[in-house]
Amino acid sequence: MQIHAFYTIRTTRQTSLDIQPERLQRLAVFYVAGQLLGGFIGFGVLKLITPKHIWRPEDATGPGVCTTVPHPDLSPFTAVTVEFIITSVLIFLCCGVWDSRNAKHHDSVPLRFGLTITGLALAGARFSGGSMNPARSLGPAIWNGDFEHHWIYWVGPLLAPLVVTPFYRIVFQQREAEPEETTEKRTEEFPLRTNNV
User: Fold this and answer.
1) Distance, CA of 185 to CA of 182 (rounded, Å)
2) What CATH number is attached to the domain comprising 92?
3) Residue 101 within any structural domain of the chain
4) In the chain, what is the straight-line distance between the N-terminal and C-terminal CA atoms, in Å?
5) What does the alpha-carbon distance between residue 136 and residue 124 come to, in Å, rounded to a whole number?
6) How far is CA 165 from CA 76, 93, 169, in A?
7) What pLDDT was estimated at residue 196?
8) pLDDT digit string, tens, across residues 79-98
9) Could you tell me which residues belong to the region Disordered (predicted)?
10) Distance separating alpha carbons of residues 164 and 12, to the nearest angstrom
11) What is the predicted pLDDT for the residue at 109?
12) Distance between CA atoms of 171 and 109, rounded to whole angstroms?
């Protein structure tokens, strides 16, 4: 789950998750802090156990290992746009999964998320680094000291749920259920055949 998922849960009206807004706000603070701290500690452990010459050889220039940076030929605006688009696709998936109308269709959710994130990361990596989450970019930036264009990985991914979630609510707004009488009438008009005649 991403940092921006809490905003998505909070603003998706037809959510199948039963979480009170006050509790969600408290959880969000701890969750965001945990993700940022986890990214920092996790990358620090990785750096600790990996030989120093792999991280940044003496004659190397440019960003450190695992630091998300935009392609040198792209403008920062293009990189923000790519991050916004790939994060938007991920937010659409979150909204669809958490929509109460899909509460019975959670059998392959891990597979859906895994394949979607893999595809989006591969698609965006060449252009912007394919971060989709500020916590993913913060740890390597701090440890490597590479903060050039780091704002891209906060603006793009955090702007996506602000735009996509209300859009999802408007476009896929839950319609009123049809009365049961109409449904019964339809089944009576077209009965199923029980014999093979």
Assistant:
1) 5
2) 1.20.1080.10
3) yes
4) 54
5) 14
6) 24, 11, 6
7) 57
8) 999 999 999 999 999 888 88
9) 178-197
10) 10
11) 86
12) 22
Answer whether 82's CB lies under 8 Å from 127's CB: yes
Contact predicate 121/130, CB 8 Å: yes
pLDDT less than 70: residues of the chain: 1-21, 57, 174-197
Is residue 163 one of the residues assigned to a domain?
yes
**pLDDT for the residue 187:** 53
Identify the domain containing residue 70 by its residue range. 1-172
Q: Which amino acid is at 165?
A: T
Q: Which of 38, 19, 25 is nearest to 135 (CA)?
A: 38
Residue 62: DSSP 8-state: S
Give CA angle at 175 (171, 181), nearest 5°: 160
pLDDT digits (tens, 9 = 90+) for 21-44: 677 777 888 888 999 999 999 999
- What would the two tokens of residue 20 be? 């009170």
Beta bridge pairs of residue 99: 15
Q: Which amino acid is at 16?
A: S
HSE on the CB side for 178, CA within 13 Å? Answer: 7
Amino acid symbol at 156: G
Beta-bridge partner residues of 15 = 99
Two tokens, residue 171: 């476009």
Q: What is the SS3 assignment for 178?
A: coil
In a domain, 121, yes or no: yes
The verdict on residue 57 lying in a domain is yes
Q: Structure pTM?
A: 0.75
Amino acid in the structure at residue 25: Q
The pLDDT, as a whole number, for residue 184 is 53
